[in-house]
Amino acid sequence: MDAVHAEFDTLVAQALACPDDRLHACLARLQEHLLSHFGQEDDWMRQTAFPAGDCHIEEHGKVLASGVQVLDLVAQGNLAIGRDFAAELERWFPGHADYLDSALAAWMCKRQFGGKPVVLHARKAHV
């Protein structure tokens, strides 16, 4: 899960930094990643009867639907919405990972190993 999340971060950063003529391609690659990423998590939730699965799967579906709409608009020349979408994914994802994905990881570890995973968070610099 961590490797997939790192790939997500990389793809979002690429979409935010790429030149305009590459934006659609970067967002299309990000959408492909999301389909795979969310699909794997959705399968895990269904296979393990994850209690919060419906909510989590619904959130994935909304992000994927937005991605399709954004790709269509970017293809029509609306680059700003593509950049806004990537920026919103960058803002949204940490909370999603910290709450929904970590709960899924804990659920799966507890079911498989009888315990829960150790979650490490980087310290934020104090000013």
What's a concise summary of this model?
The chain has 127 residues and is mainly alpha-helical. It is 79% helix and 0% strand.
Question: If you had to describe this structure to a student in words, what would you say it looks like?
Answer:
The protein has one domain (2-113): Hemerythrin-like (Four Helix Bundle (Hemerythrin (Met), subunit A)). Helix content is 79%, strand content 0%. It is built from four helices and no strands. The chain has helices at residues 2-17, 23-48, 53-75, 79-113. The longest helix has 35 residues, at 79-113. The chain starts with a helix and ends in a 14-residue tail after the last helix.
What's the architecture in CATH terms? Up-down Bundle
Q: What is the overall pLDDT average?
A: 91
Rg is 16 Å
Q: What's the CATH topology label? A: Four Helix Bundle (Hemerythrin (Met), subunit A)
Instruction: Please count the helical segments.
Output: 4
The named CATH superfamily? Hemerythrin-like
Highest CATH level, the class: Mainly Alpha
What are the secondary-structure elements, in order, as H or E?
Answer: HHHH
Indicate the percent of residues in helices. Answer: over 70%
Q: Tell me the strand percentage band.
A: under 5%
Low-confidence stretches: none
Biggest β-sheet description = none
Q: State the shape.
A: globular
How many domains?
Answer: 1
